[in-house]
């Protein structure tokens, strides 16, 4: 019961005959203190939720390292519908290969994910390391609505520049919600989700059980309600040692997909699954998933 409700309960009890006056004074003071503390907690979470959800790394992406440039990675730039210019890195696909568009998690920036995606570029896949507003030296502040604009801009750029209208969309952690949002409204070849959640609202409600977390949220990232409209094949990977997002979220995400979906639980893997998978089985699962789709286009 919230402290505010406790205060009302104390007042009701105080109205009963025989209630001790000193005890009443103490109870009223305690109830008022708890209520004030609860209200302060609500206000703090409301005002700090952006910093709790997003941890943007402002370091500019800068020049592409030689090892990545040799695999066709280049610095690119895209404009969003609300007028922001976003820098990102991308490797053009070899003839006949599809492109992976990768939306990273809440911390770091796109450059941090480049080593993990390098083998796919070396194999021939195109790779777009999408970058958000507020991350990687880009202007703007992170938000759910803003991330969707950023994702649309990257997919529009991909279609206009490389002629890829239905890429493989990948999302890591907070980026899984971004990937699901665009997959629900755009054609995609497949969807790969690393350590996804059903919704940020579900996570917040479990983490802050004593607060009206769902009502406080400005950024819901409600993947579970959008997934039934996603008909493309879905691969979900989750580590059983993930301490940030319980792997049951990943299982529920796979079950909610509107088309064929596969859930892979990685033993000993943390968060995110692919980057914290000592055995490397997650990358093997992704490679098999893409191969099974026969995603190579006719050259």
TrEMBL record:
Domain (AB hydrolase-1) ranges: 98-211
Transmembrane stretches, start-end: 25-46
InterPro entries: AB_hydrolase_1, AB_hydrolase_fold, Pept_S33_TAP-like_C
Organism classification: Bacteria, Pseudomonadati, Pseudomonadota, Alphaproteobacteria, Acetobacterales
SUPFAM superfamilies linked to this entry: alpha/beta-Hydrolases (SSF53474)
Residues covered by the Peptidase S33 tripeptidyl aminopeptidase-like C-terminal domain: 231-294
Superkingdom: Bacteria
GO MF term list: hydrolase activity
Keyword flag Transmembrane: yes
Protein name listed in UniProt: Alpha/beta hydrolase
Entry keywords, A to Z: Hydrolase, Membrane, Transmembrane, Transmembrane helix
Keyword Signal: no
Pfam families per the UniProt record, alphabetical: Abhydrolase_1, Abhydrolase_4
Signal peptide region: none
């Amino acid at each position: 019961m919230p402290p505010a409700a406790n205060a009302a309960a104390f007042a009701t009890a105080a109205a009963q005959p025989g209630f001790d006056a000193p005890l009443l004074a103490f109870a009223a003071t305690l109830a008022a203190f708890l209520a004030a503390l609860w209200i302060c907690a609500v206000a703090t979470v409301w005002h700090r939720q952006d910093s709790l959800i997003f941890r943007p790394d402002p370091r500019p992406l800068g020049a592409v390292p030689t090892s990545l440039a040799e695999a066709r990675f280049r610095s690119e730039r895209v404009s969003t519908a609300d007028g922001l210019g976003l820098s990102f890195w991308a490797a053009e696909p070899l003839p006949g290969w599809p492109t992976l568009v990768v939306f990273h998690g809440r911390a770091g920036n796109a450059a941090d994910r480049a080593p993990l995606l390098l083998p796919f570029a070396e194999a021939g896949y195109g790779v777009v390391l999408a970058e958000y507003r507020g991350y990687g030296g880009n202007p703007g502040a992170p938000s759910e609505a803003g991330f969707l604009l950023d994702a649309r801009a990257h997919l529009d750029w991909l279609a206009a520049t490389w002629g890829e209208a239905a890429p493989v969309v990948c999302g890591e952690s907070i980026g899984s919600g971004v990937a699901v949002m665009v997959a629900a409204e755009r054609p995609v070849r497949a969807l790969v989700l690393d350590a996804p959640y059903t919704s940020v609202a579900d996570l917040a409600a479990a983490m802050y059980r004593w607060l009206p977390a769902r009502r406080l949220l400005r950024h819901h990232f409600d993947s579970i309600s959008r997934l039934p409209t996603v008909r493309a094949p879905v691969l979900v990977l989750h580590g059983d040692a993930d301490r940030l997002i319980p792997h049951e979220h990943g299982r529920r995400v796979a079950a909610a997909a509107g088309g064929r979906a596969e859930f892979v639980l990685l033993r000993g893997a943390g968060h995110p699954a692919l980057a914290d998978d000592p055995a490397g089985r997650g990358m093997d699962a992704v490679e098999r998933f893409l191969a099974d789709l026969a995603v190579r286009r006719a050259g």
